[in-house]
């Protein structure tokens, strides 16, 4: 496990909770926008490989049986973030997103070798999952902002591959690719957004897929509205967290924000 850092958010909260699952702010793991073109080309190759699998195909060997509901999770050393339990991984940096006005934790970014996996868990109704509706809203939002969005089969079911326009410092427009994963669980919905070099690196992509399959969602028993963010908190002191940084991250390390709901 690497660094733990706190990331402040200054944007106003969305109606219905701090973060709605169809509103995303992406962290590219430290890659600058000059790399967006290379990532955009590479993600096409990675997405094509993902499309070779189907929802009915056997679960790939590199995946565990999760993401888990708390009641079903096997014993493993994990970082307690409240609504999410994250396995410790060598070389991983944990970046927590914190709303500056409310001090509420709104998400976690798991950063490994230049790529970032943003993870959040939301309450879901007993009767049905959320991913289909959330995916449609995300796709419409990206297209409305001048980007592209395509659904493709992946290891956890249907994924959304997006390219969102980003204004560069020189005034030109580049495109930031991202891979959205959605998993419907037992009264919860987990959203994971992968950005960075892993989009074009199959080995790195599988590493993050394994990480997703080891996550644990702690839904709790309290009543919550559908799409409400399951409360999270900062991790306590643990042996794997060697350094603590406070304050906002470098704004150049931030990826695109999806702020409109179609």
Describe the structure.
The protein is of the alpha+beta class. The protein has one domain (4-258). Helix content is 16%, strand content 35%. The chain is built from three helices and 15 strands. The chain has helices at 36-50, 131-144, 202-213, and strands at residues 4-9, 24-27, 68-69, 78-80, 84-87, 93-99, 105-112, 115-123, 148-154, 157-167, 173-184, 188-196, 216-217, 244-245, 254-258. The strands form three sheets. A nine-stranded mixed β-sheet has the order 9-10-11-12-8-7-6-1-14, with helices on both faces. Residues 56-65 have a biased composition (Basic and acidic residues).
SSE arrangement, N to C: EEHEEEEEEHEEEEHEEE
Give the low-confidence spans.
10-17, 30-34, 50-55, 237-262
State the shape.
globular
The whole-number mean of residue pLDDT values reads 80
Q: What is the CA-atom radius of gyration, in angstroms?
A: 17 Å
* Class from secondary-structure proportions: alpha+beta
Number of helices: 3
Q: Estimate nothing, just give the exact number of structural domains.
A: 1
Helix content: 10-25%
Lateral arrangement of strands in the main beta sheet? 9-10-11-12-8-7-6-1-14
Q: In total, how many beta strands?
A: 15
Distance between the termini: 38 Å
Beta-strand portion reads 25-35%
Q: Report the biggest beta sheet as strand number plus sense, adding barrel if it closes.
A: 9 strands, mixed
Biased composition (Acidic residues): 46-55, 66-78
Biased composition (Basic and acidic residues): 56-65
Protein name: DUF3710 domain-containing protein
Region (Disordered): 1-81, 232-262
């Amino acid at each position: 496990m690497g660094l733990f850092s706190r990331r402040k958010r200054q944007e106003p909260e969305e109606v219905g909770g701090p973060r709605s699952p169809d509103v995303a702010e992406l962290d590219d793991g430290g890659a600058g926008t000059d790399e967006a073109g290379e990532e955009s080309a590479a993600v096409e190759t990675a997405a094509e490989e993902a499309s070779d699998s189907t929802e009915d195909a056997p679960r790939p060997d590199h995946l565990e049986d999760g993401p888990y509901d708390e009641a079903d999770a096997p014993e493993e050393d994990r970082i307690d973030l409240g609504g999410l339990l994250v396995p410790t991984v060598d070389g991983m940096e944990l970046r927590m997103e914190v709303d500056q006005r409310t001090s509420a934790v709104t998400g976690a970014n798991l950063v490994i070798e230049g790529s970032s996996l943003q993870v959040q868990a939301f309450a879901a109704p007993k009767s049905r999952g959320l991913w289909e509706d959330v995916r449609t809203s995300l796709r419409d939002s990206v297209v409305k902002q001048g980007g592209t969005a395509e659904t493709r089969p992946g290891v956890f079911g249907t994924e959304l591959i997006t390219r969102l326009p980003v204004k560069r410092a020189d005034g030109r427009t580049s495109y930031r690719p991202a891979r959205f994963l959605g998993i419907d669980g037992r009264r919860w919905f987990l959203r994971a957004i992968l950005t960075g070099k892993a989009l074009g690196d199959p080995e790195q992509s599988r590493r993050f897929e394994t990480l997703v399959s080891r996550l644990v969602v702690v839904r709790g028993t309290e009543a919550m509205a559908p799409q409400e963010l399951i409360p999270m908190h900062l991790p306590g002191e643990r042996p794997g967290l060697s350094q603590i940084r406070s304050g906002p991250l470098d704004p150049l390390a931030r990826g695109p924000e999806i702020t409109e709901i179609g």
